[in-house]
Amino acid sequence: MPKGRIIVDVDKCKGCGLCLDACPLHLLELANDTVNKKGYQPMRIHTPEKCIGCANCAMMCPDVVITVEKL
Amino acid sequence: MPKGRIIVDVDKCKGCGLCLDACPLHLLELANDTVNKKGYQPMRIHTPEKCIGCANCAMMCPDVVITVEKL
Amino acid sequence: MAKVMMKGNEAMALAAIKGGCKAFFGYPITPQSELPEYLARHMHKHGGVFLQAESEVAAINMVYGASGAGARVLTSSSSPGIALKQEGISYIAGAELPAVIINVMRGGPGLGGIQPSQADYKQVTRGGGNGDYYVLAYAPENLQETVNVIKEAFDLADLYRNPVMIAVDGLIGQMMEPVDLDVEVPKRDLPEKDWATIGTYGKREPVNVNSLFLDPQDLENHSFKLAEKYKLMKKNEQRYEFVNMENAELVIVAYGTMARIVRSALEILKNEGINVGLLRPISIWPFPEKAFKEFPDTVKGILTCELSTGQMLDDVKICNNGKLPINFFGRTGGMVPEPEEIVKAVKDMIGGLK
Amino acid sequence: MAKVMMKGNEAMALAAIKGGCKAFFGYPITPQSELPEYLARHMHKHGGVFLQAESEVAAINMVYGASGAGARVLTSSSSPGIALKQEGISYIAGAELPAVIINVMRGGPGLGGIQPSQADYKQVTRGGGNGDYYVLAYAPENLQETVNVIKEAFDLADLYRNPVMIAVDGLIGQMMEPVDLDVEVPKRDLPEKDWATIGTYGKREPVNVNSLFLDPQDLENHSFKLAEKYKLMKKNEQRYEFVNMENAELVIVAYGTMARIVRSALEILKNEGINVGLLRPISIWPFPEKAFKEFPDTVKGILTCELSTGQMLDDVKICNNGKLPINFFGRTGGMVPEPEEIVKAVKDMIGGLK
Amino acid sequence: MGNVVFKRSNGLSKKEFSYCPGCTHGIIHRLVAEVIEELGVLDKTIGISPVGCSVMNYEFFNCDMQQAAHGRAPAVATGIKRVRPDNIVFSYQGDGDLASIGTAEIVHAAHRSENITVIFVNNAIYGMTGGQMAPTTLIGQKTTTSPYGRDEKHAGKPIKMSEMLATIPGATYIERVSVHDPLHVRKAKKAVKKAFQTQIEGKGFSLVEFISSCPVNWGKTPQDALNWVKDNMIPYYPLGNFRSPEEDDKND
Amino acid sequence: MGNVVFKRSNGLSKKEFSYCPGCTHGIIHRLVAEVIEELGVLDKTIGISPVGCSVMNYEFFNCDMQQAAHGRAPAVATGIKRVRPDNIVFSYQGDGDLASIGTAEIVHAAHRSENITVIFVNNAIYGMTGGQMAPTTLIGQKTTTSPYGRDEKHAGKPIKMSEMLATIPGATYIERVSVHDPLHVRKAKKAVKKAFQTQIEGKGFSLVEFISSCPVNWGKTPQDALNWVKDNMIPYYPLGNFRSPEEDDKND
Amino acid sequence: MINEQIICAGFGGQGVMLMGQLLAYSANDNDLNTLWYPSYGPETRGGTANCSVTISEAKVNSPVISKADTIFIMNGPSLDKFESKVKSGGKILINSSLVERNIERDDIKAYFIPVNEMAVKLGNGKVANMIMIGAYLQITKIFDKETILKILKKSFGEAKAHLIDINDKAIEAGMNYIKEHYE
Amino acid sequence: MINEQIICAGFGGQGVMLMGQLLAYSANDNDLNTLWYPSYGPETRGGTANCSVTISEAKVNSPVISKADTIFIMNGPSLDKFESKVKSGGKILINSSLVERNIERDDIKAYFIPVNEMAVKLGNGKVANMIMIGAYLQITKIFDKETILKILKKSFGEAKAHLIDINDKAIEAGMNYIKEHYE
Ligand SMILES: Cc1ncc(C[n+]2csc(CCOP(=O)(O)OP(=O)(O)O)c2C)c(N)n1
Ligand SMILES: Cc1ncc(C[n+]2csc(CCOP(=O)(O)OP(=O)(O)O)c2C)c(N)n1
Ligand code: SF4
Ligand code: SF4
Ligand code: SF4
Ligand code: SF4
Ligand code: SF4
Ligand code: SF4
Ligand SMILES: [Mg+2]
Ligand SMILES: [Mg+2]
């Protein structure tokens, strides 16, 4: 059971990658197979079940597109 | 015998009196009986023979009208 | 109320308070410093704010902020200080904020001198700042008129959401004459300042005060909207006085202190049987072009008189539009002519016309 | 030398170096920043100084200092930055110092926008600063002309001991077109700068650079002396081009990029059998009033075209002096018209005249 | 459904930021917005947008805003605060805006101890105009107007605004923070909160200097830019508190 | 005939000063002129007059001079020095000029470490314009724009420019002096000499702040004004050195 | 019809500005039109100061006085500067305590009043200007002494109320001097 | 007579400014008149970018292109923005790797070239713009490949000389694509 969940407003993500290094568990990656409406490769979580809801990713997201829940 | 002598460019003196307090021997005064060309009561030395030529008066004269000699 | 004797600069300050001015930001400069000094003594008694800014640039931007927050606000300065305010004035005009600016003009260019002058006419009426904008500009000739127009200026600024400049020469700032501070001036119906940044307090959406339009189409639309406003000002706010126009063979155009001197000259001329009229612009922007259509047929020429090397001359030429010959008489740099000099300029011109 | 392709801003920078510019002081602003950037890379190779100032105000006062010390000096900016320089420009004019100022104009008022505009015409030609002064002002239409006039500007500034402003719109700054940097430009016989503060070195009495004249009579004398100089500039430095004037039924007055668009419009009109001429002011101060006396009799009206809501219009009115009807066409805020819009404005005017 | 532990603050409008990918202006906006909201003053706050990349942040903050001329935000803030002393007023300024053209205005706002809060975003460059040298540009740093790297002989050493402003008696609260990792972001938020609290308590001038990044004009990826902040900016611009109201209280 | 131990320096012109009786601007002029002459650089010195009571000092110094716009003397000095690096360049500025309208220019001249010398005359008032409050006016001091005495709540505490400028890395030499008695006058001259020497040696920005008097606008006799300097100004504006080239040499 | 143009000139500290202002205030009090205009600027610092006053039943137009009806001369340099500015047939009131020479014109009427000495004799050197005013009142009868005193009282306020008496005496002295020497 | 008006439009990083500049440089090299003008301002940050180029035997007047002879479309939003700006009878060259839809007009000639995919195949995703240029050269014959390469060489300098080869190949690929699909 994951302890946390992130919800990403994918189409507003600019694919900057700052959240990637922020995640203590390295759960995040940039999608290398899709672009969003803005033309960026958006962030996605590759192992959602490991998320602890620490919100570090959200702390670093300059475009405030991540919502974090504790489960 | 005085050790020093001051020469005052009387007509350029503005009678501000700053030299008076500067003289360690209190030798200076403002003329209370005459005005100079500018309309000021100019400085004069009342006891020239006591002058030691220390130039303290000249140090303080904002209008640089005092010349000092050591004798 | 009876007339009181007041120094021009102080009367202007008091007039501003009576005009509802609630904030003043300015920086000292001769020959207007008695104006901020008066406000430093009195503003707080009227619930207003007086603040000496670190510079004219800061002052005009404080005006921007306070006006954007809904306050009736004044700044004053003199020629080089006004030059420094130009960017800020352009911003105020661009963001459509009301503000009253008093310019007690002295001689230039550069540091120039501190004696009376009208050599800021172009700086005032043509906008020294960037872009398509104008400020409403008044150039009264005596303290009573100055006081009245300052009181009105706050309404006008609010009405048009535009800077209003009062441009007097140093003489008007420095002299004393009797003045009644309580003469009623026309009041305008003013819209609410729903654009002012005073906090939403949960009652409305946020507003912003702004002159930036990155999309050129937006900026053009904004500029054309401003242009319409300026047209309206031109239509409604031209202000001028005619003196002795009946049967005048010559019209002198002059404003401010120069107009007063001309008045004396007209009397001398009258005594000599020479009939000369005076068109006295009170608003210098909009310039009173309407007046030029009202000249009697007797008029054979125009003499423009200024305390400058000839700046209003452009406006006279534009309004005259080739109809009448135009001469110029000017003193500048702080020199103020005696009426006799104007009498001579008139006679020279009449001689030339014959 | 063959023509090279250069961006307008960079070509202007190189032209300044070729014109003998030895010092640049400026502050970044769009759309002219490539100009200082180019000089940052290259100035030192030519023994010159490049310094980014802390503000436009500081920059223009550095220009004052460096010019007063005898150097050929340049600053550049864009509209709101030019507004901030007005006090300094007035000082430079008042102290009779040479200086070259490039204004790459953008939309206003206030922060406005960053797209091309000619809405600084009044700021440039009427002096946004205080006092009776003018700056020589050129408004070239393409890079070759811009480069040539910049090279000449340093001579002109030295000759008249007066600021020279090059006013181009953002389009000229941003575009690339072929340009020959080595076209010979007229050289002037220049007096020695014996007024420059470079130290006495025991060879002469101290000199000072100054715009202060506390005695109003001195200041008036100084102002009248300046006025004589401006008269001389008016006589000698009017610059303009006529295009297709023979048998023209209408004359368009336009400068800078607008003139180029008008050229395209004239071709379209010609193909339709409509004969329209162009008067293209190259100097905007002095405005080419002489040109108005050279219109052929076929001309029935004037259409003024500007990238503003109508600023040069004043000068056209003054020079026209009531002779011909005048219409105006303008786009502003960064909007640049297509030739077809001008064709339409011409047809509308011709229709109205009939 | 879980507990939302982080969501977009109501202090921000719905509008997307116009910043380049990975530009930390966005993080700073968020912190300011959250603090204003959390302190319950959003509805009486008036913000001031500078000229710089953040020029359009009047569209991003969910409160009344004024756009100020380049460098003049502290004067505009002064104008507002003096006529609306009960409102909360903050300015948001870049290093070109605050440390170069606006030097006089920031010094004198501090000098008068204007009861305002200044958010100072130091990214060692002029972002908006395309990467020119700022007074805060590091020695050796290449910019479009220091193409050979900033040279101390020519342009001086980078200016430390927080240290300088802290000498001014009226500067009540001055702190320098960074947002290069989550830990520092959390610390930075505390400083912003303290700054606004200083204002709310009427104690005078408060300023938080953010060391920020400009990946585009630094020519770095967003993450490399943050590493550069850590490895190069912070050693020159030490983080920490330079003035606090407590200290002043003690002196009283 | 005796030995002349003091006479008017050739660094001064023959022209009489235009200052009010007892105004210490005159003493400061003399010191600057003497130093320039004694260092043998009079013939290559270019001075800059401010806007303030000393606006006309281009007539008093016996060297080339430029009159600068109010507050902009450091920018003018920069322009001169950059194109004439071998000349000696100094500016002479009042507290309104330097500490108010010209704040940005003085901070950035120091920041770039312009190799110039600044003579800063702090008389806690705007002398020329008739006695308005300056940023350096003391708390409680009555001026025409602080008619009830300067109020800290309204106008902040007086600004200490030397202290502030000393935090700027490029400020090589900063010292505050006074001329209220002969002893201090002599000390002040040493500081002026050191400032010019700093420039001559190419070490960068130097500034000497003079605590000066304005008997007329302070409403005091010249001597009382000096007593007020001693009893009120100096306690708030401590004399002494704030930065020196030696210190920097050590740090190198 | 009253139409008086007056210039007051002297050293900075002699109270010439106040002299002009008093006359202007008095004019306003008597419902006359009036305009007072100071010289300003650096020449007032230490150097000479002057102001001009127009008092008129008609509206005051030009603030500039080409030729004055009356000029007060409080010191020597002022005489040099202003003697030529007196209208032909006009008056010049001269402080003979400080002015050594006679006037050069014969088309104007000069009054020499040793106001400094008289003031010292009254016990307050500062009221020299009020003696001059007194002389003027006696010569022109333009205002009565009470008008002037009323204005002085108002401008002095409580704090300086005790000074009214000496000023009253000074005006009186000036009036008497004219009576004795010129009537 | 040559009189080509061209607009290049795409994302910021796609090298559309360079495309325009190359054409303008080539024109100058061939002694033609030319003018290149970029869109500038914040929309170039992250968003779309475009520039216009005029190439003409006659003097270039208006820098503004009302209707272009040729428009390069490097991404979807650019097609939406610029389709209507092609002259009737003009050409539109579309990057079909990123543009999904067909054009809506039938009075212009469209060329669809999958330049991104082709570039990746060539081993360097960045040369997509040069493929586009190659296609244009093949269609218009306005300049030869060598002109373009000469200019590239000059602008690359020593440091980037090794990139000439891949660019050469890219232009070639563009030319071939037109030959194969549109000739
Ligand atoms: C008076 C004036 N000068 C210059 C400019 C141009 N300009 C716009 S933003 C800017 C500097 C931006 O740098 P900074 O303040 O550091 O903000 P950043 O973009 O880095 O966040 C400049 C010089 C302007 N708009 N107005
Ligand atoms: C742009 C501008 N603003 C204001 C003034 C008016 N002004 C002249 S001197 C001065 C201040 C003088 O004070 P300070 O610098 O302290 O010199 P001081 O006279 O006391 O020696 C001011 C505000 C001016 N000349 N120019
Ligand atoms: S909430 Fe924490 S664990 Fe979950 S993705 Fe974000 S940073 Fe990683
Ligand atoms: S930090 Fe935000 S914008 Fe950047 S990649 Fe992650 S989610 Fe996207
Ligand atoms: S030289 Fe010394 S002793 Fe002589 S008068 Fe001057 S201060 Fe007095
Ligand atoms: S200090 Fe100088 S000016 Fe003052 S009284 Fe003495 S001699 Fe005269
Ligand atoms: S240019 Fe730099 S500071 Fe501006 S938005 Fe882009 S990354 Fe941020
Ligand atoms: S006003 Fe003050 S500072 Fe100016 S000269 Fe007089 S005493 Fe000196
Ligand atoms: Mg920055
Ligand atoms: Mg001072």
List keywords for this structure.
heterooctamer, E: 252 residues, 10 helices, G: 183 residues, alpha/beta, Pyruvate-ferredoxin Oxidoreductase, domain 3, 6 strands, binds thiamine diphosphate, binds iron/sulfur cluster, binds magnesium ion
- Compute the number of helices of chain C: 13
> Which ligands does the model contain, each kind named once?
thiamine diphosphate, iron/sulfur cluster, magnesium ion
Please give the alpha-carbon distance between the first and last residues of chain C: 51 Å
Query: Which spans of chain C of ≥5 residues are poorly predicted at pLDDT below 50?
Result: none
Shape label of chain C: globular
Helix content of chain G: 25-40%
Name of the top-level CATH class of chain G: Alpha Beta
pLDDT averaged over residues of chain G: 92
**CATH homology-level superfamily of the largest domain in chain C:** Thiamin diphosphate (ThDP)-binding fold, Pyr/PP domains
Look at the structure and give the mean pLDDT of chain C. 97
Walk me through this protein's architecture:
Chain A has two helices and four strands. Chain A has helices at 18-22, 56-60, and strands at 4-8, 28-30, 43-45, 66-70. The radius of gyration of chain A is 11 Å and the shape is globular. The model of chain A has no long low-confidence stretch (mean pLDDT 94). Chain C is α/β, with parallel strands linked by helices and 354 residues long. Chain C folds into two domains: 4-236, Thiamin diphosphate (ThDP)-binding fold, Pyr/PP domains (Rossmann fold), CATH 3.40.50.970; 240-353, Rossmann fold (3-Layer(aba) Sandwich), CATH 3.40.50. The termini of chain C are far apart. Chain E is an alpha/beta fold and 252 residues long. Helix content of chain E is 38%, strand content 18%. Chain E is globular and about 50 Å long. Chain E starts with a strand and ends with a helix. With 183 residues, chain G is α/β, with parallel strands linked by helices. Chain G has one domain: 3-Layer(aba) Sandwich (Pyruvate-ferredoxin Oxidoreductase, domain 3). Helix content of chain G is 40%, strand content 25%. Chain G is built from six helices and six strands, in the order βαβββαββαααα. A six-stranded mixed beta sheet of chain G has the order 2-3-1-4-5-6, sandwiched between helices. Chain G is globular, with a radius of gyration of 15 Å. At the C-D interface, helix 4, helix 5, helix 9 and helix 12 of C face helix 4, helix 5, helix 9 and helix 12 of D. Strand 9 (208-209) of chain C pairs parallel with strand 3 of chain E. The structure holds thiamine diphosphate (2 copies), iron/sulfur cluster (SF4) (6 copies) and magnesium ion (2 copies).
